[in-house]
Design goal:
Blueprint: H1 13-28, E1 41-46, H2 52-63, E2 67-72, H3 85-92, E3 98-103, H4 108-115, E4 120-125, H5 131-145, E5 151-156, H6 163-172, E6 178-183, H7 192-200, E7 206-209, H8 212-215, E8 221-224, H9 235-241, E9 260-262, H10 283-306
Bound molecules: N-carbamoyl-L-aspartate.
């Protein structure tokens, strides 16, 4: 089995730090990396909608001098005929050198990794996890704050189905001196497996709140998220909960001057566009860093495969 990245614990804290260092180096010296993946092919298998994740993986591979094969939408591949994930990735292993896969089912990326003969990167599996968004998030925090330690991190919105939240909590829980404020409606709280594995087990302080304004002044990071409509069982609940939190310039009046406002995007209504001009808004920086850190990850996995 090739080395794959399915979830954040697949990477050690040293590896996370080294990936960020490589991404920084790529940003500073892009020409040094422009031939690194010459002759290699990345297959992007996206069975769920995506703009940033797929395009950033593809841009990453092109900027490394490699090529891309792409399946977008379950309806256009043999998945629509009933092919299993296992058979799909065994097939793709014959054509490509590395796979980035997004799938609506939790655990699909793991099944892919167990059946592929090439590295698989999980680009989001249902409401479970999304490790490469976390890499982009960590890099953003490190660049904006100069550290990944000693901070109060607020996560707000759909903490139940938001896979980026689950991976980010897992990653940050490995750094020293953090505390978390989990802001969500009762129905959309962080799943207990994430709280138990990442926070309780390590005795990391956290509080849960339903009110953003009550806690915004304590935060160094505010990570807003979209209510994940596609994971709801009924539309009524979605409509009731979708506008639970809308960040506006007004609400930011009580926030720290050096708050870092993040969002994995896509944004629906959670952050008013009037916030975009605030120097604390970092969500489009996350998009940019996401490409460089994916370049670093592709290089790492392909080189480990060669070793
Ligand atoms: C996220 C996802 O797909 O989980 N998007 C992304 O990859 N940046 C967040 C979301 O869809 O809300």
């Amino acid at each position: 089995m090739a080395r794959s990245v399915i979830d954040i614990p697949d990477l050690s804290i040293e590896e996370l730090d080294r990936l960020m260092d490589t991404a920084e180096d790529i940003m500073a010296h892009p020409d040094r990396y422009s031939e690194r993946c010459r002759g290699k092919k990345l297959a992007t298998l996206f069975f769920e909608p995506s703009t940033r994740t797929r395009l950033s993986f593809e841009a990453a591979m092109y900027e490394l001098g490699g090529n891309v094969l792409s399946v977008t939408g379950a309806g256009t591949s043999s998945a629509a005929k009933g092919e299993s994930v296992a058979d799909t990735v065994k097939t793709v292993s014959c054509y490509a050198d590395i796979i980035a896969m997004r799938h609506p089912k939790e655990g699909a990326a793991l099944v892919a990794a167990q059946n592929a003969t090439i590295p698989v990167i999980n680009a989001g599996d249902g409401g479970h996890c999304h490790p490469t968004q976390t890499l982009a998030d960590l890099m953003t925090i490190r660049r904006e704050k100069g550290r990944l330690t000693n901070m109060t991190v607020g996560l707000c919105g759909d903490l139940k189905f938001g896979r980026t939240v689950h991976s980010l909590i897992q990653a940050l829980s490995r750094y020293e001196g953090l505390s978390f404020v989990l802001i969500s409606p009762e129905e959309l709280k962080v799943p207990s497996y994430v709280k138990n594995d990442a926070l309780k087990r390590r005795n990391i302080p956290y509080q849960q709140s339903t009110n953003l304004e009550d806690v915004i002044g304590d935060l160094d990071i505010l990570y807003m998220t979209r209510v994940q409509r596609e994971r709801f069982f009924n539309e009524e609940d979605y409509l009731r909960l979708r506008d639970s939190y809308i960040l506006t310039p007004e609400k930011l009046k009580g926030a720290k001057q050096d708050l870092c406002i993040m969002h994995p995007l896509p944004r629906v209504n959670e952050i008013s566009v009037a916030v975009d001009d605030d120097p604390r808004a970092c969500y489009f920086k996350q998009v940019l860093y996401g490409k460089f850190i994916r370049m670093a990850l592709i290089i790492k996995l392909l080189e480990e495969g060669r070793a």
